[in-house]
Structure formats: C-alpha cells, structure tokens
C-alpha cells in the first residue's frame, strides 16, 4: 500500500506473489483495484530465541469492506532500529521466492 505526499511516495508494505497467486486473489474479490495487505503476522525465531523474520497471511477486501483471507502465506525479514526488531514489510510468498531463485 503506498501513500503519496508532497515529497514523493512512501511504501508501507510490499507483497510479491506469483502470477497464479495474484490471479487467485483477484478472483476472490469483486473489487478489481483492491489492494492486498498482510495480517495474522507472527514472529519467526532461531534456536537462540532471536527474531529472524515474520510470516503472515495475505488478505484482500470485497466491495463491502469485508476482509478476505486468501490462504496465501508470505514471509519477510527484519529491520532493527534503536534495538527494536520489526518486520521489513517486504513480503514474498515461498512460490515467488522459488521462482526468483530459479528453484522449485
């Protein structure tokens, strides 16, 4: 979801999916231009208990504003600011990551 201001554009969240996943989501909503968002976010930890990433589910909305869980899981890395760990908000599905990396 992007916001526009006098100084340019700010991207709050980026969701990268395969063409098939995107088509699935677009077919779930009666609003062609409805943006996607990530909800149900959970932290991922390493063996030492450090946060190494986040996972969540992609949602869209119908024409009544009702959230629709698409069933597509996405992951993102972390950013650290003043010793606070937060999601990077650059989300990718596993299928998208595999396609980019040339693996299955």
Quick rundown:
The protein is an alpha+beta fold. The chain is built from 2 helices and 9 strands, in the order E-E-E-H-E-E-E-E-E-E-H.
Walk me through what this model shows:
The protein has 104 residues and is of the alpha+beta class. Helix content is 17%, strand content 51%. It has 2 helices and 9 strands. The strands form 3 sheets. Strands 3-9-6-5-4 form a 5-stranded mixed β-sheet. A two-stranded antiparallel sheet has the order 1-2. Strands 7-8 form a two-stranded antiparallel sheet. A hairpin with a 2-residue loop joins strand 1 and strand 2 (8-11). The protein is globular.
Give the SSE layout:
Elements: E1 2-5, E2 8-11, E3 14-16, H1 19-28, E4 37-45, E5 51-61, E6 67-76, E7 78-81, E8 84-87, E9 90-93, H2 94-101
Parallel strand pairs: 3-9
Antiparallel strand pairs: 1-2, 4-5, 5-6, 6-9, 7-8
Mean pLDDT: 87
Strand order in the largest sheet: 3-9-6-5-4
Give helix and strand order, one letter per element, not per position. EEEHEEEEEEH
Low-confidence stretches at least 5 residues in length (pLDDT < 50)? 1-5
What portion of the residues fall into strands of 2 or more residues? over 45%
The radius of gyration computed from the alpha-carbon positions, rounded to a whole number of angstroms, is 15 Å
Q: State the end-to-end distance.
A: 29 Å
**Rough outline:** globular
Structural class: alpha+beta
Describe the main β-sheet briefly.
5 strands, mixed
> Helix count, per DSSP?
2
Fraction of helical residues = 10-25%
